Amino acid sequence: MASGNSHCITLHGIPKDLESAIALAQKQDDRTRKEFEKWAVLTYSNNRAVINSKKGKDEGIDGIAYFNGDQGKQEKIIFQVKSGKVQSKDIRDLLGTMTLENASIAIFITLENPTKDMIATAKKAGFYQHKYFTQTYDKIQIVTVKDIIENQERLNIRLGLEVLKSAEKIIETKATQIQLNL
């Protein structure tokens, strides 16, 4: 039983609407806030990113995903989630984190709507172009929690793990076809 003075919004599983996402994000304890970050990164990446499980200071990285770059080497996408007030300084900090982490792309997930300055600062970071991708990607992408929940926005970059799984599936299919032909 919860105590009488407890202000409690019960969340069953993962947030299904903006209201429950806001409730989860605004919890005061770190563990619950980490759950919000985890939910945001995993939902946006379709469970293809790895959560930064470092205890304490995460150095601005809440999740990481990899994709195969032009030279056949893995390239990094970093995710940062903010549930409080956001400003263009956050985007400049993220650009610095990208440089330190040698990341090709950064995804900034925010509960608040980004400011015009934030969008302009993100655009100044430029584009990522991959010779096998049909489109270019902003190096810094800003995504709102509202976009994730209400517009079902998801990361649309083919990640390394995904490429690996589709290659395994092809090998599996060929092995099955060989067995059937025997």
Fold topology:
Blueprint: H1 18-25, H2 30-44, E1 50-51, E2 63-68, E3 74-82, H3 88-101, E4 105-110, H4 116-124, E5 127-128, E6 137-138, E7 140-144, H5 145-150, H6 160-181
Parallel strand pairs: 3-4, 4-7
Antiparallel strand pairs: 1-2, 2-3, 5-6
Summarize the structure in words:
41% of the residues lie in helices and 18% in strands. By secondary structure, it is of the alpha/beta class. A five-stranded mixed sheet has the order 1-2-3-4-7, sandwiched between helices. It has a two-stranded antiparallel sheet with strand order 5-6. Helix 3 (88-101) runs parallel beside helix 4 (116-124). The radius of gyration is 19 Å and the shape is globular.
Can you describe this structure in just a few lines?
The protein is of the alpha/beta class. The chain contains six helices and seven strands, in the order ααβββαβαβββαα.
Mean pLDDT: 81
Contiguous runs where pLDDT drops below 50 for at least 5 residues: 1-12
Shape designation: globular
What is the tally of beta strands? 7
Question: What fraction strand?
Answer: 15-25%
Secondary-structure element order, N to C? HHEEEHEHEEEHH
Q: What's the N-to-C terminus distance?
A: 64 Å
Helix content: 40-55%
Radius of gyration: 19 Å
**Count, helices:** 6
What profile does the largest beta sheet have?
A: 5 strands, mixed
Structural class: alpha/beta
Can you tag this structure with a few keywords?
182 residues; alpha/beta; 6 helices; 41% helix; 18% strand; globular; disordered N terminus
